[in-house]
Amino acid sequence: MLHTPSTAAVFPYEHTVTPEEIEPAGNATCLAYLEWTRQAALGHSAAQGWPPQRYIDQGIAWTVRSHEIHYLKPAMLGQHVVCQTWVESFQKTRARRRYKIFRPEDETLLVVAETNWTLIDLKTFRPCRIPVELSEAFPVVPDDEGSDLATS
């Protein structure tokens, strides 16, 4: 069985692989997996009370500093996949978000990933401090709870 951090802190983005997401070899493209992580992050943020408009209203936005993705198994056309995401840590201007993409039908782990985000001020496009009300909206799952995901 797949190890998952505390369910209260984890957001599941569910998706069915579409023809547009398929490589000539028959598997999902690397960009499809990246888009699923993006959609999971957006969904999780909205579910925690931070939809895109709230960020805009506050003059802030997240920007990607780096992505790390480990492709373990392919997703194929028509397969149902789940991209679970959670926040692993907050720093002054940054947050680390982790992802696990799997096929629930047989619990096959397809991808593990993480994104390092930086919060920026939309006027200056420079990093800015994460507001307390933003960081408090997301339960943090420490590395020791999610660290074995890459080997699950």
Task: Kindly describe this structure.
The chain is of the alpha+beta class and 152 residues long. It has a single domain, classed as Thiol Ester Dehydrase, Chain A (Roll). 21% of the residues lie in helices and 35% in strands. It contains four helices and five strands. The chain has helices at residues 30-47, 52-57, 132-135, 143-146; strands at 11-16, 60-71, 80-90, 94-103, 108-121. Strands 1-3-4-5-2 form a five-stranded antiparallel beta sheet. A hairpin with a 3-residue loop joins strand 3 (80-90) and strand 4. It is elongated and about 45 Å long. The model is unreliable at 1-6 and 147-152 (pLDDT under 50).
For this structure, the quaternary state is single chain
Poorly predicted residue ranges: 1-6, 147-152
Q: How many domains comprise the coordinates?
A: 1
Radius of gyration: 16 Å
